[in-house]
Structures are given as structure tokens and as C-alpha cells.
């Protein structure tokens, strides 16, 4: 599979003496016009032939094979060298080129020329042959007729072996017939359904699919010639075949006629946000994009790409204890001697602490049910969403007072709502406060409330940082707690803040928030702008910012806002990227901004406008700049002091 243009052709070279594993060497070239100029081949040191007993050392210390490749047209014998320095073409993943065989054409390539000179490869090309009278297209068609390549393809082409020896998988709809070979199952017999069998485990020893034992299912008549002894394919497809387009099926999941109706899926695709683990980023994303590109080329999908944005979420890790020989130790066998020393309680061996992916064999798993039983489901959600950016690894622990710290906040938060019905506050005598004072406090409260809405929205919109949003909501909670009792009793602004807080924290702790909302429904007798208290929490609108609240220009790198300035909201839509950059550069933060950019080796990448309240200038690492020191993402700086977790962004 590949994506993008077919920018070259494939070439097959027969070997002068076929080996047990190879009859051919296959490669790819973007310059088929130099086909007749090939004088030698390179293979990488990771090629199987480079590890065989065919290796000879030449005078100049370079290794070559004792067998040759044969030019697919001229039959010239081409020496094969083991060489990792040649250009093997585009890389599809880090350090991984698609090719491990490459052609040498000294006539048109200077590296090949000097290589040929150094290793005494004859560069003489007999240009009097009949091939030289033909144009490239004719040569390619000759290659195709000889079955030695000549097809347009991509340098990024990679194999995707889709067959698996598993029961659970989509059956491969092929019938094998002795007379006809591989015959597709007729369309009206699709889908092929899995038979019900007792033992669905494949034997790892034989490597044969468990379906091979379903003899009644396996035996079938050949749809082409009627042969009674044809056999169904017993391998099933790789799960990626299904997961590469499940999101299309989800949009039309009751369709009994076809996988999906294009008119339905095209209204909703592409997916706005795709959240997955790192393994998704590598394999699933590639396969899903490949299938979507295919569907697009067939006119089934209007969008070429399946996903607009992707967050590779970090893994949850647990604490492990390991002896020097790598043996994992359960926590109860670890004795703490001092801050830096832990030993095995029985063997007295020194034990090292690390954070690793949770696993039974490493004794570092945490059962979510235990936490839910101890703290409740909302609090467990809060624990998981707190502190860490979604992309970062989460080193999960209940040590270091993390749960206690959160519980304190939880109590303050709940109390804000409970005190609306608490008789103690009702009997409290009213303290004296002038109207002016009252208004001033209300105004400050409004500022705090709007600032929270702005920041929370910005964090979620910009980089889905629920953890940063929670920090802001905790700040608002603490602010509201300290508000004078008169304000709590009489200010509409205060009640509105309570509504805003619940609506914004609702998705994080939904059960508790809904519960607290019912208090507001009962206790608030006045009309709160923007809210309908007759409806439940999750039917409320997300809080909005008033027109007099200024918009902001932010400079963002990763999850850090390193410069920010207010700007009139009405002005924002009229500004171009250059205007916005200029505004920020002329601002008071200028020096601080410059320092941050230099320190982190950044360059401006793009502008992202979020509604009308915010313009974000996104900075990325400048690959041409080497930096000495690494920056810390925002969340790490704001992390609770008691947390000593190692976090990777
Ligand atoms: Zn047949």
C-alpha cells in the first residue's frame, strides 16, 4: 500500500543463481529513462542476502555477493554490493526507507559514478543495441511482457500482509480450486460468515488457522467449474482491514445493502478529532488514511483524508520495583531504608524504582474498580484527567498526597453549592457593606468569571488540555469560596458564576455536577442570564463571553502560551496574519517573547483563529536551529508541588 502519486516504476532483476529464498531482487526507480545505464545494484546490510554465505570481501573493503543480478532487458550481469550509503529513496517512517535494493547508474548519478570508479565496475554501456533505439515507454512495455516490472508505482509502497491465522477476523472471500486456482466468492454469497467451531485457538506450533479444522465449512463447490472438492480460504483478515474504515460504517450502521451510503457519510466526514494511542499513530492512522484515499479515488468519499486532527494520548504507567538483574518485585517486599535507598525485604538486594506500562508481570497495575470503590466514579475521572496533558505519559499513583489534595478541592467545590441550602449561613448576621463596595466586588468577580471562561475554552479548543482547564476551574472555585457572604447571598453575578462553573466542570465530574445543579434549580429564584434552570445540567448552553470582553492574541508553542495581549473583539476578524504578528511584536511582551523563541529555537508556523475571541499564533521548532535547553510544557510548571512524577510530553 502507499499514498500519493505513483512516481516511478518497479524493476525486477533475476539472480544469476537463484537462492533458496530469492529468485529476484525487486526495486523501484523514479528515472526509468536511465534503465539501460544500470551497471550494478546495491543492497542494504539488513537485506537477507547480505547476511547469507554469498558474501565476498573486495579489495577496497566493500562487500559484494558472489552471484550477480541480470539486467531485465540487456541480460548484462550486474554485480551486487552491500552498501548502506547509497540513496535508497524516500523514507516513510523515521530512519526507514521503503527500499533495500537500489540501482547504480554511473552515467546519470555522481555517487554511483564515484562508487563505480572506486570499485572498478565497468561503466561502459553498449549503446548500439536495439534497446537504445526504443523510447522509454516501449522499454517499459517490454519489461511488463517479460514480467520483470515496468509498472508505475510509488517509492513509498510497502507490503501489508492482511492474512492472519486467527478465528476472529473477517473471512477472506476466496475459494481454492485445483482446476481454476483462486476464485472469488460470488458477490451474492457475500459476506462469508464464520462457522461456529469449538476450538477457536490457533496452534502456534502449526501456524494453521483454526478455521482449517472446520471441515464442513471449508469444503465447497467451485463457483467457476463446479468442482466439489474446492476449499475455502481459512485465513482471516488482519483487524486493521476492519478498523481502517469502521468510522464510515458507524455513520450508516444499519445499511443491509452496502458497507455505507456515500451520501450519508459525506455529510459528516471527515472526523473532527481522532483520539488514540501511539500505536494508532503509526499503524492504524496509516492504514485508515490509505483506505480513505482508495475510497476517495473510487468516488465513494469526498474527503481525501479521514481525520482533521489527531491526539496520540499518553499511556498510563505504574511504578515498578526492580532488582539489578531486572527482576520485578512486588511493592510489599520493598523496604525503604532512606530517601534514596530501597531494598528487597528478604534478599536485601537493592531495588530501583521506575515507571513502566502497566502489566501483571511487572506488579505495577492498578485496578480502576478499586479506586472507584474507594473514591467514587466522578473522583476517579477527575484523578485521571488531572495534572497531565492528554499527550503525556501518566505515571499513576495515589502516593504523594495527590488524591488528598484533590479531595480538599472537591470539598470546597461541593460546599459552594451546599451552603446555598445550609441553615448556618442563613442565620448568619448580615455584615455591613456599602453599595459601592458591593458593586466593586461584583465587578472583580465578573472579571474572574469571564477570565475563567476564556481560559478554559482556550485550553480545550487549542490543545484539548482538560488538565489545564481543571486548574482554571479550581482557581475559580477558590475565588468563589472567599467571596464575602453578602455577595454570596445577594449577587446575581455570584449565582451565575456557580452556574458557569458547573457547566464547565460537568463533563469531568458529570454525576456530582448534575446533583449539584439540582440545588441551583431549587435555590435560585431569579433569572440567570444564559441559563434555563427548568432544564437539567447537560441541556444548558456553554457559557459565552460578552461583546465587551476583549479578544486575545496568543503565541503558543506546544502547550505553552508564551506571549499574550488583549485586542478588541470587533477588530479581530479584520486582521490578517501579518497584522496579528505585528501587533504582538509591538507589544510589551516583546522581549520576553523574543527570549522564549530563541531559547526554544522556534519559528512561526501558522495562525489559528478560534471563533472571534482568540487568535493563536502557533510556533513550531525550527529544524534549522539547534537548541541547548529543552522547554517545559505549561502543565508541568503548574503541577502540584507534592508530585514528583516524571512526565514526558
Ligand atoms: Zn474450479
From TrEMBL:
Pfam families: tRNA-synt_1. GO terms for biological process: leucyl-tRNA aminoacylation; mitochondrial translation. Keywords: Aminoacyl-tRNA synthetase, ATP-binding, Ligase, Nucleotide-binding, Protein biosynthesis. Its EC number is 6.1.1.4. It is found in: Mitochondrion. It comes from the Eukaryota. Its main location: mitochondrion. InterPro entries: aa-tRNA-synth_Ia (IPR002300), Leu-tRNA-ligase (IPR002302), Rossmann-like_a/b/a_fold (IPR014729), tRNAsynth_Ia_anticodon-bd (IPR009080), Val/Leu/Ile-tRNA-synth_edit (IPR009008). One of its GO terms (molecular function) is aminoacyl-tRNA deacylase activity. Belongs to the class-I aminoacyl-tRNA synthetase family. This is leucine--tRNA ligase.
Amino acid at each position: 500500500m502507499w499514498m500519493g502519486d505513483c512516481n516511478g516504476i518497479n524493476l525486477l532483476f533475476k539472480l544469476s543463481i537463484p537462492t533458496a529464498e530469492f529468485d529476484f531482487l525487486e526495486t523501484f526507480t523514479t528515472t526509468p529513462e536511465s534503465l539501460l545505464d544500470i551497471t550494478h545494484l546495491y543492497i542494504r546490510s539488513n537485506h537477507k542476502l547480505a547476511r547469507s554465505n554469498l558474501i565476498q570481501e573486495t579489495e577496497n573493503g566493500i562487500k559484494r555477493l558472489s552471484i550477480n543480478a541480470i539486467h531485465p532487458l540487456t541480460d548484462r550481469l550486474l554485480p551486487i554490493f552491500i552498501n548502506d550509503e547509497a540513496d535508497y529513496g524516500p523514507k516513510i517512517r523515521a530512519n526507514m526507507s521503503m527500499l533495500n535494493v537500489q540501482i547504480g547508474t554511473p552515467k546519470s548519478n555522481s555517487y554511483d559514478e564515484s562508487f563505480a570508479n572506486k570499485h572498478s565496475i565497468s561503466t561502459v554501456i553498449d549503446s548500439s543495441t536495439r534497446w537504445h533505439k526504443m523510447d522509454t515507454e516501449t522499454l517499459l512495455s517490454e519489461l511488463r511482457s517479460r514480467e520483470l516490472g515496468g509498472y508505475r508505482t510509488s517509492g513509498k509502497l510497502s507490503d501489508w500482509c492482511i492474512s492472519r491465522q486467527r478465528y476472529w477476523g473477517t473471512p477472506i472471500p476466496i475459494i481454492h480450486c485445483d482446476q481454476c486456482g483462486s476464485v472469488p466468492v460470488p458477490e451474492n454469497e457475500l459476506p462469508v460468515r464464520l462457522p461456529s467451531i469449538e476450538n477457536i485457538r490457533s496452534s502456534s506450533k502449526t501456524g494453521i488457522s483454526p478455521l482449517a479444522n472446520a471441515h464442513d465449512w471449508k469444503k465447497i463447490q467451485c463457483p467457476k467449474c463446479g468442482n466439489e472438492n474446492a476449499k475455502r480460504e481459512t485465513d482471516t483478515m488482519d483487524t486493521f482491514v476492519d478498523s481502517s474504515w469502521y468510522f464510515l460504517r458507524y455513520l450508516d450502521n444499519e445499511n443491509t445493502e452496502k458497507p455505507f451510503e456515500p451520501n450519508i457519510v459525506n455529510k459528516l466526514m471527515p472526523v473532527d478529532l481522532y483520539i488514540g494511542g501511539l500505536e494508532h499513530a503509526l499503524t492504524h492512522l496509516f492504514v485508515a488514511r490509505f483506505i480513505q484515499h482508495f475510497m476517495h479515488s473510487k468516488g465513494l468519499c469526498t474527503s481525501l483524508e479521514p481525520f482533521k486532527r489527531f491526539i496520540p494520548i499518553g499511556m498510563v504507567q505504574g511504578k515498578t520495583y526492580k532488582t539489578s538483574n531486572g527482576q520485578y518485585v512486588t511493592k510489599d517486599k520493598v523496604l525503604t531504608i532512606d530517601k534514596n535507598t530501597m531494598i528487597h525485604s528478604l534478599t536485601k538486594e537493592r531495588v530501583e524504582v521506575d515507571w513502566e506500562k502497566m502489566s501483571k508481570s511487572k506488579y505495577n497495575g492498578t485496578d480502576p474498580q478499586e479506586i472507584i470503590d474507594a473514591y467514587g466514579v466522578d473522583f476517579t475521572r477527575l484523578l485521571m484527567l488531572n495534572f497531565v496533558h492528554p499527550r503525556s505519559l501518566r505515571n499513576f499513583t495515589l502516593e504523594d498526597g495527590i488524591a488528598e489534595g484533590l479531595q480538599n478541592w472537591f470539598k470546597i467545590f461541593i460546599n459552594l453549592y451546599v451552603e446555598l441550602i445550609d441553615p448556618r449561613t442563613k442565620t448568619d448576621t448580615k455584615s455591613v457593606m456599602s453599595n459601592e463596595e458591593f458593586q466593586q466586588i461584583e465587578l472583580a468577580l465578573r472579571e474572574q468569571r469571564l477570565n475563567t471562561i476564556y481560559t478554559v475554552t482556550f485550553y480545550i479548543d487549542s490543545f484539548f488540555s482538560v488538565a489545564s482547564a481543571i486548574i482554571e476551574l479550581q482557581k475559580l472555585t477558590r475565588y468563589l469560596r472567599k467571596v464575602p457572604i453578602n455577595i454570596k447571598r445577594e449577587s446575581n453575578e455570584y449565582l451565575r458564576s456557580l452556574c458557569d462553573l458547573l457547566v464547565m466542570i460537568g463533563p469531568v465530574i458529570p454525576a456530582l455536577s448534575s446533583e449539584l445543579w439540582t440545588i441551583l434549580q431549587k435555590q435560585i429564584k431569579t433569572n440567570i442570564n444564559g441559563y434555563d434552570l427548568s432544564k437539567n445540567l447537560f441541556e444548558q448552553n456553554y457559557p459565552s463571553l460578552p461583546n465587551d470582553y476583549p479578544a486575545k492574541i496568543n503565541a503558543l508553542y506546544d502547550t505553552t502560551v508564551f506571549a499574550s495581549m488583549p485586542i478588541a473583539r470587533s477588530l479581530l476578524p479584520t486582521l490578517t496574519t501579518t497584522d496579528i504578528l505585528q501587533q504582538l511584536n509591538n507589544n510589551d511582551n516583546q522581549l520576553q517573547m523574543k527570549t522564549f523563541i530563541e531559547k526554544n529555537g522556534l519559528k512561526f508556523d501558522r495562525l489559528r483563529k478560534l471563533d472571534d475571541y482568540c487568535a493563536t499564533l502557533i510556533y513550531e521548532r525550527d529544524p534549522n536551529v539547534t537548541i541547548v535547553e529543552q522547554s517545559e510544557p505549561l502543565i508541568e510548571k503548574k503541577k502540584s508541588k507534592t508530585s514528583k512524577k516524571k512526565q514526558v510530553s
